[in-house]
Task: inverse folding
């Protein structure tokens, strides 16, 4: 997918999110985010979009000193869905010159990093909302595969807010994540000094393997399902997989 595709998908995912929650009870619990209500979920998603929008507009070149931005949050939770829709509309105006150099906490030091990150923040929480409402989420397989790649690419840089990743070390141990519904194969290598995707891992033998549809791989990596879920196939070193999932929470 291209950065333009990511921007278009932010709008589409936000629209689906808003459609799901606009008539829902804001106090409904969200199982995918323990302790949160739908109101909390929508407020978080809109706040992230608005913060990222500020970063994009400023084209920051160093880590921000504050996350304080004007959210213009409505007083009534019932008005949050419309506010979320407006958040995406504001973000779209900042989706320009996405190849411009820019500070980012992840691997890609360009403006496009933030659009892609915004997309998967929105998508995963759209799924959280739909599951809370008893709906069956549908995620485009190509989009889900891009989300898997984005997650695994950036996880090694996420220690500031995912401290458990500091424990993802190993003596050259590997985990393969493979799609069952199309092309997509990612080999993660745990080294004594860190971990990350192995760009030369195609065809290499892995110590442990996880196979599922692209959507289920995405949900698994984000902790929305576990590796015992229907449709998830695991093989190899189970202790290694236990270690991975215990320390890769994002």
Result:
């Amino acid at each position: 997918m291209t950065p333009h595709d990511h921007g278009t998908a932010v709008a589409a995912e936000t629209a689906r999110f808003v459609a799901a929650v606009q008539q829902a009870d804001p106090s409904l619990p969200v199982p995918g985010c323990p302790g949160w209500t739908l109101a909390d979920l929508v407020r978080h998603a809109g706040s992230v979009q608005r913060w990222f929008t500020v970063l994009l507009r400023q084209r920051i070149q160093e880590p921000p000193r504050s996350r304080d931005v004007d959210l213009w949050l409505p007083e009534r939770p019932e008005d949050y869905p419309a506010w979320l829709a407006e958040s995406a509309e504001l973000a779209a105006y900042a989706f320009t010159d996405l190849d411009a150099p820019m500070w980012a906490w992840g691997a890609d030091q360009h403006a496009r990093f933030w659009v892609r990150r915004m997309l998967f923040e929105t998508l995963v929480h759209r799924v959280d909302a739909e599951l809370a409402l008893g709906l069956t989420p549908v995620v485009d397989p190509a989009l889900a595969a891009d989300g898997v790649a984005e997650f695994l690419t950036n996880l090694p840089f996420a220690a500031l807010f995912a401290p458990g990743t500091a424990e993802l070390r190993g003596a050259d141990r590997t985990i393969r994540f493979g799609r069952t519904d199309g092309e997509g194969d990612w080999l993660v290598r745990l080294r004594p000094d860190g971990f990350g995707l192995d760009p030369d891992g195609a065809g290499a033998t892995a110590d442990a393997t996880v196979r599922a549809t692209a959507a289920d791989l995405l949900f698994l990596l984000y902790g929305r399902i576990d590796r015992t879920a229907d449709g998830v196939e695991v093989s190899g070193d189970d202790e290694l997989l236990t270690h991975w999932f215990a320390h890769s929470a994002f």
Summary: The chain has a mean pLDDT of 96. Helices lie at 3-21, 38-58, 80-92, 111-132, 141-154, 214-221, 238-247.
